[in-house]
Amino acid sequence: MSHRHTSSKRSKVYDFRYIYVDENFQKDEGKQAATDSISLKKIGRLAATHYFSLAEKTATMEDEKMNKRARQLFAVAILAMATLALSSCTKMYVVVDEPRPTAAPAADTARIYFMLPQNFPGGRAWVLEDDNLIGYVQNRQYFMHEVPAGEHLFMLVSENTEGLKGQFEGGKTYYVRMFITPGIMGTRVYWAVLEDGKENWDKRYEWLDACRQVTLNPGKANKWESKYAGKNAERLAKYTSGESEPATFGPAAGE
Question: How many CA atoms lie within 13 Å of 99's alpha carbon, on the beta-carbon side?
């Protein structure tokens, strides 16, 4: 059977797994048949070759994607650890992952818990014994401090400054609760000693349990003390001179 073509050339496209071959038809049917036969064989060989090449390339691309994803996850993990380490170095406090002591302090030593159990609004306070920084707390935090039996003066520094003078009995534990109120530029922190048999005494353990124990970050604490040494000396002088009156309590406040 003969085929008639209206033009001298005609394109025929063979499609096999994304491999495209364009062959020109010849006018002569015999030559066309031979050409088509040879072309189909070539297409088969090319298709097979390129099919496996495509499979290898696809597998390689998938491996590269997985490797890239793994590298990204690894980088994120490293960044998270670095951020955590950096943040712990830049904070004023360090979390203490230890339970509170259950034994009473030594006979010549008094223990004091300074706690800020309030959750809202946000607040923070630096606590000094005389003009020496002994602790720092934010919401839901507390720190523990031990002193020799006798009289001690403490200062709380926030947007405001508060004084607290107590007579401490050896072998006893004392609880100082801090609380936050609105201030002028931010919030203010105040404190009060919890006394046996008086208001909120039965909440002392509940409030401690709601807080995380912290201690000072030495590097940050030293910088803060150096920066505000003059100001803290002025604050202390107001209490020691009688210009400002600290709140006071006696040894019976402890347990």
Answer: 3
pLDDT, tens only, 96-113:
999 999 999 999 999 999
Alpha-carbon span 168 to 175, nearest angstrom = 12
For residue 68, being part of any structural domain is answered with yes
DSSP character for 107? Answer: T
Angstrom distance (rounded) from CA 88 to CA 82: 10
Those residues whose C-beta lies under 8 Å from the C-beta of residue 101, and which sit 6 or more positions away, are 111, 144
Contacts of 244 (CB under 8 A, 6+ apart): 163, 238
Are 172 and 124 in contact by the 8 Å Cβ rule? The answer is: no
Residue 60 in domain: yes
102: β partners? none
Residue 125 burial by Cβ neighbours in a 10 Å radius (0-12, 13-18, 19+): buried
Contact 246, 237 (CB under 8 A): no
Same domain for 120 and 245, yes or no, is yes
Q: Identify any residues that bridge with 216 across adjacent strands, giving them in sequence order.
A: 93
DSSP assignment, residue 252? G
Q: Is residue 18 part of a domain?
A: yes
User: What are the structure tokens assigned to 177, written together?
Assistant: 């609760």
Domain containing 229 equals: 93-253
How many domains does the chain contain in total?
A: 2
Q: Which helix (DSSP H) or strand (DSSP E) does residue 93 occupy?
A: strand 93-95
| pTM of the full structure | 0.66
Distances from the Cα of 183 to the Cα of 89, 126, 180, angstroms: 29, 16, 9
pLDDT in tens, 36-88: 445 545 555 655 555 556 556 666 666 676 666 766 665 545 544 444 444 44
- The answer on 98 and 83 residing in a single domain is no
d(CA 108, CA 77): 49
